[in-house]
Sequence to fold (389 residues):
Amino acid sequence: MKLDTLTIRHLRNLDEAVIHCGQGIHFIHGLNAQGKTSILEAIYLLSNLRSFRDSDLSALVQEGQASASVKGLFMLDASTEAELKVELVQGPKRFEKRAYINQKLSKSALDYFGVKLFHSPIQFHAINLNPTSTDLIRGEPALRRSYLNQIIASESPPYMDILKRFQKTLDQKNALLKQEERLDLQLLNILNENIIQTGAFLIHARLSYLQKIAKPVLEFLARIAPLQAPVNLAYRTSETLYFTGQFEIPTVKILEENLQQKLTQLGAQERARRTSLVGPHRDDLMFKVGLKSSSLAPDLVNVGSQGEIRSVLLSLKLAELEEFKRHTGVQPVLLIDDFSSELDSTRREFLLNYLKNSELQIFVTSTDDLSGSLQATGKTIRMSRGKVI
Fold:
C-alpha cells in the first residue's frame, strides 16, 4: 500500500510538516541538518515503531516538547482511506510509544505489526537503506543480530514474541548467576530449558532466512560488481559455523540438542563468570569471501575495501527487499538515506537504474541535486531549516 499523506509533529527538528506523496520516487533535497533524514525516520517509525538512527525515544522528540507524532493516510480506493499513527508521549519516567490503526490503540507492538501488515488492507512496511554506510559489516555483532531480529520479525511477527520470551529468560538467568548466595540449580535448569527451546527457534528462523537470501545476495553482487569475489553468508553459533545457501539447515530438534550439549560443556564457566555464554544472543552473521565453506575463508571485514563492503551491503538490502515481497506479497516502501557522491559511478548507476525500474514507492535523501536523474519518475521535496519549502 502506498503512503498518500504524511503528517509529522515535533519530530527531531521538524516542527510540523505535511507531505503529500505520490507514486514512484520522492527526492528529498537540502543541505545537511535541514530535516531530510527526519522525514525518512518518521516513515520508518510509522512502519517499525522504532528509529533506524537512535534507540532512545526521547532523542526523536523535538527539544522542549512533551510529545511527537507521525500520521500516515492511505487511500484504499477513491473514497476510502485508512490511517496509521504513532505517538511518543512523555510518561512518568520516560517517553512512551503509542500506536494506532484507524484511531484504535494497538495492544502491543506485535498486535500493531500483525494487523497493519497481515490483517488489514493497509499492508504498509518500510525498509531503510543507507548505501554509503558500512556499519552493519564493520560494527559489533550486536548490530547484525539486531538486523536479523528486525527483518525476520517484520516478515513474521510471532518471531518478536519468541525473542521477548528468550530475552526475559536470559535476563532472569544472568540475574541468578550474579547472586552472591548459593545458586538455585533447580531454577537454573528450568531457565536453561527455556533458553534451549526459545533459542533453538530463533537460531532456526535466522538460518532459514539467511538460506533464502544467500542466492539473491550473490546474484545482486554479480550485477553490481561483476569483478568482485563472491561472498558467502555464514552464521556463527557457540558450537559451529553454518554456511547458508549451500547445505540443509539443521532442524529445531537438532539445534536444541546442540544448545543442550554446549550448556552442559560451559555450565561451570557460566557459573564462574556469572553470565550466560550460550544462546543466540552470542551469535553472529559473518561475510566470508569466496564460496568455500571453510572457517578459514577470509572475512570481508578484514580483506574487503570500502567499495567492496558497500557492494555487499547494497546486495544484502536489495535481497532483503525482494524476499520481503516474495514472502508477504506486500510491496514495501523503500527509504534511501544519503544517496551521495561517495558512491562510485558503478554502484550509483546500478542503484539509479534499480530505482527507475522499480514499482515501489521510494523516498531518497541527498545533499547532491539528483533531480535530473530521478525527477522524471517522481517528485522533489526541498527542505530548509526543518521545513518543507
